[in-house]
Structure formats: C-alpha cells, structure tokens
Amino acid sequence: MIGIVQSYIKKHQLIQQNQTIVAAVSGGPDSLALLHYLNQLKVEMNLRIVAVSVDHGLRGETSLEELRFVEQIATEWALEFIGTSVDVRSYKKKTGAGTQEAARTLRYQFFEQVMKEVGGDVLALGHHGDDQAETMMMQMTRSVRPESIQGMPVSRLFSTGKLIRPFLCLSKGDLLQYCSVHKLAYKSDESNNETDYTRNAFRKHVMPFLKEQNPKLHKHMQLMSERVKDRQLYMESQAEQVLETMEMSNKNEPFVKFSLHTFLTFPLALQRTAFHLILNYLYGYQIEEVSYMHEEILFNLLRGDRPNAELDLPKGLKVIRAYDEVTLTFSRTDRTTFTKLLYIGDTIELPDGSTITAEWSESGRDRGLYEFICDSYHVKLPLIVRTRKPGDRIALKGMNGSKKVKDIFIDQKVPAYKREEWPLVTDSDGQVLWLVGLRKRRECTEDVSGTWLRLIYKK
Q1: What are the structural domains, with CATH classification, of the chain?
Q2: What is the pLDDT along the chain (459 residues), one digit of tens a residue?
Q3: Which helix H or strand E contains 226, and what residues bound it?
Q4: How many CB atoms lie within 10 A of CB 429?
Q5: Residue 73: exposed, middle, or buried by beta-carbon count in 10 A (0-12, 13-18, 19+)?
C-alpha cells in the first residue's frame, strides 16, 4: 500500500518538501490512517503536520469525545492540533440547508480558517477509491451530462494552497488493513450506518453488488475520473474560442450576448461546453438546479423556427432569443409603456434615456431615419409620442392602404422584447406619423409649400 500511495503522490505532485500539511481527521479509520501515513513522511520530507478536527454537534457527547480522541492521538504523535465545535442545527435553520450540506459548509469554513492561520500549503483529506466510486455512481444517477460525472478531484486550489486526496488510489479494505497492521485504534461513526442519507444508502445497498462484479471498481472509477477531468479541461480550453465571439459584461448586472449564427458554426460539443462556462461566469459557480433538461430546452430554442423566444433558468436567469441575437441576463424584462405630449419647441425624454425634439424648420430636406420632416398641413398638433397599441397602422409611401406596425417590426426583425418599448409618433387625431428609426407616413412631405415640422431623435 505504501508504494502505491507514494507513486500516486509523485504522479500528481501532491506533496513537496518543507510544506505545512493540514490533515482533516475525524477519528475514523480513513482519516486516522492518513494522519499516521503523513506522520511517517514528516521527518523524511521535513513536513509540518497540523491535525484538525470538527465536532458537528449532531451526536452529543459522542462526537465531542471523538474530537478529544483526535487531540489525544495528535499529542501522542507530537503533532499540532486545532479543533472546533460547530452548530449545524442553527446553521440549517438560518440557511435552509440540509444536514449534510450544512455540516460540510461549516467544516470547510473551519478548514479554510486554519489554513490561513498556519500558512498551510496543503489540506489533506482521507477520501479513498470506494468513496470516489460512490460519488460517481451518485452523480450518474442525478445527471447525464459528462461534465457532471467527474467525481472528487485528486487536487484543487483551496485557501492558501491546495486540497489533496492522496488515498483515492486505495480501497476501504486497504485502509482497514493498514490500521490493523499498525494497530491503530479508531472510532466508528454509527451515523454511517443510517440509510436516510443518499451516500449511506449507496454504500450499503449499491456498492457491495458492484464490488462483487468488479473488485477493482475503485481503481477503474478513479482512472475514469482522471480521464474525464483531462478531457473536460481540454474541451474548456477549446471552448474559449467560442467565448471570444461573445460580449460579456463584468458590471454589477452581468450578461452574455452573442450571435446565434456564429455560435452555431462551432461543433455541438463546444457549444455545450461553452454554455456551461457561461453559466459558471453568470452564476459565479455551476449550480445543480441547471439540469440537462434545461440544456436541451435551450438548444431547442436556439435551433427552433421561432425568431423570438425566451427561456427561464433557475435563480432568475433569462435566455432571450431575438432573431440572430441571444442574451443571457438576470435583468428584469418588464416592459415600460408610455404616452407623452410633444409640443413644438419642446424636448421629451423617453424611459430609456433617449430624446425627441420638435421644432419648426426652413428646410424640408429629409436627413435619415432618425429625423422626421413633415409639412404642418398634414398634422394636427400637439403630437403624441407613445408605445404601440394593438391595431396600430401606418400609411407608407409606395403602397395603397396602410400596414400594421406589428408587421413592420417583423419585417425589420425587431426583437420582440424591444417592440413593446419602441417609440412611435402620432398627431392628436391618432394618425401614426413615424415609427422612429424605421418607417415614415407617406403624406407628410407631399405639400412642399407648407411650413416644415422637424422631429429629431437622439439615443
């Protein structure tokens, strides 16, 4: 066993000379074997070993005795010890978290604090290969996304250094044998036998059958975990080229915006990987509530025939498709309707901060989409600037009759979420004169002998 662990540590570069190692010890066989093993390396590698233990306060005097037990072992082995008791029940009431989640959160908060206090280089945990197999089987049960089935990492950044799991190459049986050989008396947590918790149920009912089928299951699952992780790191590096085509805000209200056409030119695997990188960026972490079902619905939205569509994701994240533009945002999308009177010589401000000014002009020259010229004969003042209403129509140059404003929006590919706030100008009789920036009423410049009215729109 020693040789296997040494090779594993060397392969993954888990421990270096002269480091400060914080070892998480519960008093059970796995963590006690870890502390004993690290203590054997102490002199050879000039390591500083700090044993840490947490009483979760869930089993009364029993769990407190385990904390004292770990302290006693550390003292006997001439190792530093830092222990604490945490109130899991109060934390559950405060946050609504489950028992296991609350215990884990408080435990890791303490580990992080100790790492900072002692200048730790490494936080060592006693998870073994059977734990890894359990974790991955649970992940497979909950999800079909490959990136969700990676198991526990061999190492990752943590606090002032990194977190390591040097025993993932071993089975539970290996560690029990190690304890027996070295005559290590450990404590057994009876709560591990309760099947109310999912992991314990897997451990008791699922894993024994799988281990019967393949006694080396823990090795195979660990190798699979490492390969999946390597593959995912490569895919993420390739997916960076997808993200480079996107607009990503780093302001208080983060959003991501991209061209649908450009996005769909990339291979599907990169599209999916980029999607999850986007989620990590927007949420700050990958949340479990975003399932493969959300992913499938999103990709159906992107490939569907509807040019305007929306999708609600957890925590208030919206996906908005507007023709070629796709936006992921937490911003509220409530529409602002408005109606404002506009008199000659005045400037009004619209809800988005843009303005429209009305003035008399000596020139009847049309200066583009954002200016409107009309002879006064064809309008009845005051003018009205408002958002559209059902049934709005405008008479356009070059066509008989009139055309629905709704159809103009569709023809011009105006995103659905912008249509409800788009300004249009009517006279006091309700005739639509100008769909700002898009189309103008045909009669407005037919009588060149009139006095000219000019409207100027500024974003």
Answers
A1: 2-229 (3.40.50.620), 245-329 (3.30.465.60), 339-458 (3.50.40.10)
A2: 888 999 999 999 999 999 999 999 999 999 999 999 999 999 999 999 999 999 998 887 888 899 999 999 999 999 999 999 999 999 998 888 888 889 999 999 999 999 999 999 999 999 999 999 999 998 888 776 677 788 899 999 999 999 999 999 999 999 999 999 999 999 876 655 554 567 888 888 888 899 889 999 999 999 998 998 888 889 999 999 999 999 988 666 788 999 999 999 999 999 999 998 998 888 876 566 677 788 888 999 999 988 888 888 888 889 999 889 999 988 765 567 899 999 999 999 998 889 999 998 877 777 788 999 887 777 888 899 999 988 899 998 777 889 999 999 988 888 877 888 899 999 988 899 999 999 998 876 555 555 788 999 998
A3: helix 217-243
A4: 8
A5: buried
Label residues 182-213 b or e (16+ Cβ within 10 Å = b): eebebbeeeeeeeeeeeebebbeeebeebbee
Chain-centre distance of CA 261, in angstroms?
Answer: 24
CA atoms in the 13 A half-sphere facing the CB of 164: 27
User: Token match 């233990």: residue?
Assistant: 53
Tokens of 381: 């003042």
The answer to whether the beta carbons of residues 152 and 132 sit under 8 Å apart is: yes
Which amino acids are annotated as binding site, given as ranges? 26-31
Q: Which residues are annotated as a binding site for ATP?
A: 26-31
The full DSSP string for 98-125 is -HHHHHHHHHHHHHHHHHHHHT-SEEE-
Q: Which pair of structure tokens corresponds to residue 189?
A: 């947590």
Q: Do residues 394 and 439 touch, judged by C-beta distance below 8 A?
A: yes
The tokens for 455 are 């409207």
Cα–Cα distances in angstroms (integers) from residue 185 to residues 27, 31, 32, 65, 110, in the given order? 9, 12, 9, 14, 26
CA end-to-end span of the chain? 71
For residues 352 and 447, the answer to whether their CB atoms sit within 8 Å is no
CB of 326 within 8 A of CB of 263? yes
Q: Answer whether 0.85 is exceeded by the pTM.
A: no
Asked whether the bond before 351 is cis by omega within 30 degrees of 0, the reply is no
User: Residue 320, SS3?
Assistant: strand
What phi and psi values does residue 153 have, to the nearest 5 degrees? -70, 145
